[in-house]
UniProtKB/TrEMBL annotation:
<keyword id="KW-0328">Glycosyltransferase</keyword>
<dbReference type="InterPro" id="IPR035584">
    <property type="entry name" value="PurF_N"/>
</dbReference>
<dbReference type="InterPro" id="IPR029057">
    <property type="entry name" value="PRTase-like"/>
</dbReference>
<dbReference type="InterPro" id="IPR029055">
    <property type="entry name" value="Ntn_hydrolases_N"/>
</dbReference>
<feature type="domain" description="Glutamine amidotransferase type-2">
    <location>
        <begin position="11"/>
        <end position="237"/>
    </location>
</feature>
<protein>
    <recommendedName>
        <fullName>Amidophosphoribosyltransferase</fullName>
        <ecNumber>2.4.2.14</ecNumber>
    </recommendedName>
</protein>
<keyword id="KW-0658">Purine biosynthesis</keyword>
<keyword id="KW-0411">Iron-sulfur</keyword>
<feature type="binding site">
    <location>
        <position position="366"/>
    </location>
    <ligand>
        <name>Mg(2+)</name>
    </ligand>
</feature>
<comment type="pathway">
    <text>Purine metabolism; IMP biosynthesis via de novo pathway; N(1)-(5-phospho-D-ribosyl)glycinamide from 5-phospho-alpha-D-ribose 1-diphosphate: step 1/2.</text>
</comment>
<dbReference type="GO" id="GO:0051539">
    <property type="term" value="F:4 iron, 4 sulfur cluster binding"/>
</dbReference>
<dbReference type="GO" id="GO:0000287">
    <property type="term" value="F:magnesium ion binding"/>
</dbReference>
<keyword id="KW-0479">Metal-binding</keyword>
<feature type="binding site">
    <location>
        <position position="303"/>
    </location>
    <ligand>
        <name>Mg(2+)</name>
    </ligand>
</feature>
<feature type="binding site">
    <location>
        <position position="402"/>
    </location>
    <ligand>
        <name>[4Fe-4S] cluster</name>
    </ligand>
</feature>
<dbReference type="InterPro" id="IPR005854">
    <property type="entry name" value="PurF"/>
</dbReference>
<feature type="binding site">
    <location>
        <position position="365"/>
    </location>
    <ligand>
        <name>Mg(2+)</name>
    </ligand>
</feature>
Amino acid sequence: MLSEDRIGEECGVFGMYDLDGGDVARSIYYGLESLQHRGQESCGIAVSDTKGPKGKVFSHKDMGLVNEVFTGEDIEKLAGNIGVGHVRYSTAGSSVRENAQPLVLNYVKGTLALAHNGNLTNAPELRQELAYTGAIFQTTIDSELIAYLIARQRLKTGSVEEAVALAMPQIKGAYSLVIMSPRKLIGARDPHGFRPLVLGKRDNAYIFASETCALDTIDAEYIRDVEPGEIVTITADGQILSNKTRCIPEKEHGHCIFEYIYFARPDSVLDGQSVYDARIKAGRFLYKDDPIDADIVAGVPESGNVAALGYSMESGIPYGQVFVKNSYIGRTFIKPGQKNRESSVKVKLNALNHAVNGKRVVIIDDSIVRGTTSDRIIRMLRDAGAKEVHMRISSPPFLWPCFFGTDIPAREQLIAYNKSIEDIRKIIGADTLGYLGLNRLKELVDNKMSICEGCFTGKYPEEPPTDDIRGEFEA
Ligand code: SF4
């Protein structure tokens, strides 16, 4: 899907602890670059030296892409062998520097730096509770609430990992966390496992990352996924401690299926499931369940490409490219608002007349949110001479919002709400329109894996908030 009508992932996280004492900022930088698809609004790195003064943290964060925010000099200044990094996506109002992560919190036990991917569903209640007991907030993000709760629990308990375990029952919703204390690096995941988190190793350094593609980028080997509900602690003497007291039965897990359809990079493997394989399967199912005769099948770049390949494999229709994407558009030119949104599609994509002229085209996209770009895409293909345009979507229609770390909006904003597929087909101007069947979602991954498919069915693994609280504190 194109950015004009895209769904935002709330964030990507990365943490690294080099037990041999080497600096980690450069590797964190590259790790964050490979997680850039998970958030483009702001980013940051916080590091510390475990042999230096306890709790002295250097951090740098700002609005913008990783390669815009950090210069070589910035990275040089971030000296330390333990650190966390973050890339953030946010809804428009909250796109301010104060809300960039990692959050660094000083308290009596030292310093905590925290990077969070997800959304808490009880953030307003927690914020009120904490505010009434004297907390003063520097940001409007719910990640700060987690940091506060951990810091408070730490005063009552012997270790930071125990404090995380005590804080977890107080927070509801989706969270994959990487936490740096003066001498330990911790990765933790909410009990449902909405968002991914993996553990890797390079030489004598341990790494937590949102996706395996970040491990590949820095030449680290994958060790395993942090399990839903698990707290994994890397200690100064190289132990990997695991606390599973917050884990729940596997059948209650809720791995976000949309990670596989759209959010994650196709070269990542999350919870043992290849994102690429899931997308190939989605493309195959689209043809199996709703075949159409055509001359060429192509994806809306980039996110529709792998499913389009799967469609081609299943159907025998040649896979091709029908759009050229300009990847060098300055983001500052893309302004919110319908009028600008529409015109920017053309700036970003151009139809390949020679590939399309006189052809029957199947075009695959991962989803339709508001439908503001699908009609442009189809019109561009027709203008380029396409004889027929058949649109296939590698997910079922969005019918419900997401409260667990993405910004799938309220129902009224979703094109499929209150409309039939035929209505949508007419609006976007396709010859035919087909979506992935709901029954196919589980088949994209291991059937035994318990998934969240709430934005398609309205059935979430955890009770959603009664109000749409997501904009409340600009979280
Ligand atoms: S509601 Fe949709 S996007 Fe949100 S976690 Fe569930 S599957 Fe993922």
